[in-house]
């Protein structure tokens, strides 16, 4: 593997599977198919410790200017790639629900990087939101505003970032309790100019720009009014993921992290 070997740790590749319990009738979740670890929200997810409040998470997102988005076809690769990015200066990172063993990977990362702000993306069901929170997620993201997920996070210290596209959706999500929204798919909607237009009537609503953003365009989005951007391939390039080149991912993370801080703080 060459340069990637510096990030390979045999102990990290052992990700124990947590079998789903058989819920009692009182604990059953109203979904036809539920692939989850627990139907109950742990007390630690409801009242998290110091530094993991919604305010701290929101502040970390706005301060870094970047949410790194990781999706992988392997739990082992996901853990190593996330570790490389976090070691490269990324402080806010989401793992998408499509990643195998996403909750187990998240739990390992939370233990290895307790100071990082780690979350789960593409959360579309309350059951998945609960499992993510129990695994230690500090924030959840969705491509749309999912009312069931928004209801689950109420009363907890987990930040929910719902996906929005139109001015009406932005205002509805904000009035519904969202502290920050994700404008998606921003590139298809007009990119930087669309963010700039939205911020005119909604200057009071923090926005994350998501989809098709590169490290080179990061500054433009921040200047236009975005609080942060979601970077996926710009950090976890398809080639590096395929080759398991974690050193390359580390380098991309270093560059993105530096660009993000420079864009936010000048």
From TrEMBL:
InterPro entries, sorted: Aldlse_KDPG_KHG, Aldolase_TIM
Keyword Hydrolase: no
Listed pathway(s): Carbohydrate acid metabolism
Keyword line: Carbohydrate metabolism, Lyase
Membership in a protein family: Belongs to the KHG/KDPG aldolase family.
Subunit field text: Homotrimer.
Gene3D superfamilies, per database record: Aldolase class I
Zinc among keywords: no
Protein name: KHG/KDPG aldolase
Source species taxonomy: Eukaryota, Viridiplantae, Streptophyta, Embryophyta, Tracheophyta
């Amino acid at each position: 593997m060459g340069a990637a070997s510096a990030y390979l740790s045999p102990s990290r590749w052992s990700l124990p599977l947590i079998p789903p319990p058989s819920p009692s009738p009182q604990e059953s979740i109203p979904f036809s198919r539920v692939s989850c670890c627990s139907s109950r929200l742990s007390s630690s997810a409801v009242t998290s410790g110091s530094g993991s409040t919604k305010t701290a998470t929101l502040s970390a997102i706005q301060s870094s200017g970047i949410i790194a988005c990781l999706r992988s076809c392997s739990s082992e690769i996901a853990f190593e790639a996330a570790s490389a990015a976090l070691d490269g200066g990324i402080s806010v990172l989401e793992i998408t629900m499509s990643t195998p063993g996403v909750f187990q990977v998240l739990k390992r990362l939370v233990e290895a990087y307790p100071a990082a702000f780690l979350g789960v993306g593409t959360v579309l069901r309350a059951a998945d939101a609960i499992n993510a929170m129990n695994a230690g997620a500090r924030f959840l993201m969705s491509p749309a505003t999912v009312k069931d997920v928004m209801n689950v996070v109420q009363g907890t210290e987990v930040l929910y970032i719902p996906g929005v596209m139109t001015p009406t959706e932005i205002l509805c999500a904000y009035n519904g309790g969202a502290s920050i929204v994700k404008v998606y798919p921003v590139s298809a909607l007009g990119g930087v100019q669309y963010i700039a237009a939205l911020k005119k009537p909604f200057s009071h609503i923090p926005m994350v720009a998501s989809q098709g953003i590169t490290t080179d365009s990061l500054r433009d989005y921040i200047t236009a009014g975005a609080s942060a951007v979601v970077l996926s391939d710009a950090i976890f390039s398809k080639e590096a993921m395929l080759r398991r080149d974690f050193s390359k991912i580390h380098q991309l993370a270093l560059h993105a992290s530096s660009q993000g801080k420079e864009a936010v703080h000048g």
